[in-house]
From TrEMBL:
Keywords: Membrane, NAD, Translocase, Transmembrane, Transmembrane helix, Transport. Coiled coil: none annotated. InterPro entries: ND/Mrp_TM. It is found in: Membrane. It is a multi-pass membrane protein. This is NADH dehydrogenase subunit 2. Residues 33-84 form the NADH:quinone oxidoreductase/Mrp antiporter transmembrane domain. PANTHER family: NADH DEHYDROGENASE. It holds the Pfam family Proton_antipo_M. GO terms for cellular component: membrane; plastid. It comes from the Eukaryota.
Length: 93
């Protein structure tokens, strides 16, 4: 990581030092997943860190909006992945 760009953008480096290794570990866990639940449990910590990184500029209105939109879309996709899509209820006979 380039700490010079952190200083220019005035990011708190501590947040990124904590938030970058967690998705990396999650990706490694995702590689070793043998079933769907393990894959889901590997994707969730990764996405939570990316939500925080997307909304990392606290004073920026665009960053807050991006983080909230990313969280809402992630919640929808996570719900569909977790609960599935039942095609039999939507068919008209």
């Amino acid at each position: 990581m380039c700490f010079d760009s952190f200083e220019q953008e005035r990011f708190d480096a501590f947040e990124f030092i904590v938030l970058i290794p967690l998705p990396t570990r999650s990706m490694l866990f995702m590689i070793s997943a043998h079933d769907s639940i393990a894959m889901y449990l590997a994707i969730e910590p990764q996405s939570l860190c990316f939500y925080v990184i997307a909304a990392s500029k606290r004073k920026s209105e665009f960053s807050t909006e991006a983080g909230s939109k990313y969280l809402i879309l992630g919640a929808f996709s996570s719900g569909i992945l977790l609960f599935g899509y039942d095609r039999t209820t939507t068919d008209i006979y």
